[in-house]
Amino acid sequence: KEYNPSNAVSPNPNINTGNAAGFLEGTHLDDTGNTTGVTHDITTMSLDADFSDMDGDFDNDLFMNSRDTTSRFHQNRYFENGGSVGSEGSGTRLYRDVTSMWGTNGLAGNSGSNYDADLNDMDNDNDTDFYGLNYNGALGDEWRTNNGTGAMSAASAVPSSGNDDNEMDWVDYDYDGDVDVYVSAFSASD
Fold it and tell me: What is the C-alpha separation between 167 and 190, in angstroms, rounded?
């Protein structure tokens, strides 16, 4: 069964300001920076969605990667809602838009070339970090570390990453206990 306590049907990407969304607290406001649940922006034209526990509270949060609009972070509020997915009558929802709190240091911004991003624990400190393809300028990749609460550090450029990259996957390629990344390029060497 679809989770939609508001019974709102989203005519994405053209949602009017003030409309509710099925899984996010609050009402729609384009490019909102609100993190209290009063407003959200659900109009991200996502290329990819990744679920991971960004804030260390044992539920899966959501990152919606976008090339042509602002990428968004949505915090899972299951435990904050007292073990509930939320309901229309209570005003709670399962997710809250926290983009301006977690997508710090320009992470969620629209460069027009963001192609893919993925989440994994790159520094082995038991939280989820970020790797973005073509997030650093037009073609450079970047990585960011999580401070343990979901907020990301300033970007670090990935050396020799100036290809038009397309997709990435994580694997422990050399069996040393940490993750490695494989990047496939759109029009250059992988």
Answer: 10
